[in-house]
Design a protein that fits this description.
With about 300 residues, this protein is α/β, with parallel strands linked by helices. About 50% of the residues lie in helices and about 15% in strands. It has one domain: 3-Layer(aba) Sandwich (Rossmann fold). An eight-stranded mixed beta sheet has the order 3-2-1-4-5-6-7-8, sandwiched between helices. α6 links the parallel β5 and β6. Bound molecules: NADP nicotinamide-adenine-dinucleotide phosphate. NADP nicotinamide-adenine-dinucleotide phosphate binds next to α2. Keywords: Oxidoreductase. This is Si:dkey-174n20.1.
Length: about 300
């Protein structure tokens, strides 16, 4: 009896872990020849895998990274794995609004097209501040991408039909936004959750504002992924997370599938954007669908990114 219950329990755990790691793959084989894709934070993790997948479909891929050395290394790897030479690196530090403006000037001067913008880069929960005095999570994950998207929106409209895919996280649901205290920086995990909720509202409001202008906006949760996000933490935490990641997380390639799906699939475009998980539309918690909050966050963000 004891043996039997041990076997049953082990099987249950085995299938649960297998189910946790299971991901749908993007089956749409559409190519992106002649299209230009810009991906932030493509030096590692989900961003790098997305870059490989889209370059392999014929897109010209611009990888925007804050570290020139890492960018160069990533570009070499993406070219090799995608068998494409149309991959270029550009410097962008989302923790600096000055850098975002400089990047956009360079990008608009150098690149004729922008068909897909992928707002992927993110800082996990760390209690630090950006050059402009914003909490690191709000500054990098939301405000940097907010300014970037707005400065490139004209080019996205010129190249319509175009898409903006913004990476969020299902942990958005653990916090609510305080519009009077957007710069909340007290508990690391909660600052991250709030920035990811801001990504959801941003994506929603962008979709509303760009409706009828040929720009479709997607918010994507890639699921738990074995990326390099733990590098910002202590050795002990990294070791613990590595064990958990091995048990519960999918590969970065699997994590990139919903991003690729939203970037290429006609089916996703026909659905008109929205929140996607595991290559299909998903339902957000009601408070995250509040169009009034999304509009107010957009207006507050416009004020915050104004040059001094
Ligand atoms: N991993 C997961 O389980 C998971 C779950 C849900 C959602 N997500 C979301 O998926 C996206 C990708 O995450 P990931 O797991 O692939 O993380 P990752 O491996 O840590 O990659 C994050 C990328 O963002 C870049 N970045 C960080 N700060 C930047 C800045 N100031 N300016 C420009 N780039 C910056 C990093 O560059 P450096 O290499 O220079 O640091 C890196 O390339 C994120 O939006 C994350 O919130 C991930």
């Amino acid at each position: 009896m004891y043996l039997l219950s041990t076997v049953v329990a082990s099987l249950a755990v085995f299938f649960f872990l297998k189910w946790m790691k299971k991901r749908r793959y993007c089956t749409d084989v559409k190519r992106l020849d002649g299209k230009t894709v810009l991906i932030t934070g493509a030096s590692s993790g989900v961003g790098k895998e997305t870059a490989v997948a889209l370059a392999a479909r014929g897109a010209r891929v611009v990888v925007a990274c804050r570290d020139a050395g890492k960018a160069e290394k990533a570009v070499r790897e993406i070219k090799l794995r995608s068998r494409s030479l149309a991959v270029v690196g550009m410097e962008l530090d989302l923790a600096s609004l000055r850098s975002v403006r400089r990047f956009c000037e360079n990008f608009l001067r150098r690149e004729e097209r922008l068909d897909v913008l992928i707002n992927n880069a993110a800082m996990p929960g760390v209690l630090d501040w950006t050059e402009d005095g914003f909490s690191m999570c709000l500054g990098v994950n939301h405000l940097g991408h907010f300014l970037l998207t707005n400065l490139l929106l004209g080019r996205l409209k010129e190249c319509a039909p175009s898409r903006v895919v913004t990476l969020t996280c299902s942990s958005y649901k653990y916090q609510k936004l305080d519009l009077h205290d957007l710069n909340y920086n007290l508990l690391p995990f909660f600052t991250y959750c709030r920035s990811k909720l801001a990504n959801v509202y941003f994506s929603h409001e962008l979709g509303r504002l760009a409706r009828g202008k040929g720009v479709t906006s997607f918010a994507v949760h890639p699921g738990l992924v074995r990326s390099e996000w733990t590098r910002h933490y202590s050795l002990l935490f990294r070791a613990a997370m590595r064990v958990l990641a091995w048990m519960l997380s999918a590969s970065c390639e699997a994590g990139a599938q919903t991003v690729v799906y939203c970037a290429v699939s006609d089916e996703a475009a026909r659905l008109g954007g929205g929140y996607f998980v595991d290559c299909r539309p998903a339902t957000l918690r009601p408070f995250a669908r509040d169009a009034g909050v999304a509009k107010k966050l957009w207006e507050a963000s416009e004020r915050l990114v104004q040059p001094p």
